[in-house]
Each structure stands twice: as structure tokens, then as C-alpha cells.
Amino acid sequence: MNFIRQNRKRNLLQTRYLTANHLEEINETVNILSNGIETLDDDIRRLDIESGQCQNVLQPITNQFPILKKSIDEQNAFVDSMKPNQDNVERDISFMKQKLDEIKSVSYDGTYIWKITNVQEKMG
Hints:
2 helices
């Protein structure tokens, strides 16, 4: 009987030791998780601040997009309006070049040298 009591006492002590040991492990785990949550909370606050700073930087840039688009559209319209003028200037330059070539072919000694350009086109 004494043996049974000692055995029960030993079992009870072992159970209490295991329970205390298990509770200590749980407590350590809870502390680790608590520290992790604090770190994540700090990270959330930091990211929130950084996000606000990014929005403050991006807002003026975003506001300038319509202005830039309008400016680009105006420049494109100007360039498109210049195209016919450029074509006219190119024709005028070609005409002046032809006239200059004709003037160069004038001889001052009484002879005239004929210069025929684009013979292949004119013959065909």
C-alpha cells in the first residue's frame, strides 16, 4: 500500500512537472509570438508612413499629366500644320535649284550648252 502511495505521488509529481514544463514552453511561444506581432505592427506603421510620403510625391506628378498631354497635343498639331508648308518649301527649293542649274549653263562666249536632265524619264 505504501508502494502504491509512493507510486501515485511520483506520478502526480511527474504530471505536475510535465504540466509546468509544458506551460513554460507555451509561455515562451506566446512571448515569441507577441514580439513578432509587435514587430509586424511597427512594420505596418512604417509602411503606412512611407505610403503617405509616396502619395504626396505622386500627387503633383499625376496632376501635371493633363497639362503635359495638352502641350504634346498642341505641339503635334503645330507639326502637322507645318507639313504642307514644308512641302511647299521643298518644291520651291527644287524649282530654285533647277533655275540655278539653268543659269550655270549660260555661256558668255556666244555658245550655248544644252543640259538635259532626267533623260531616261523623258525618253520613256
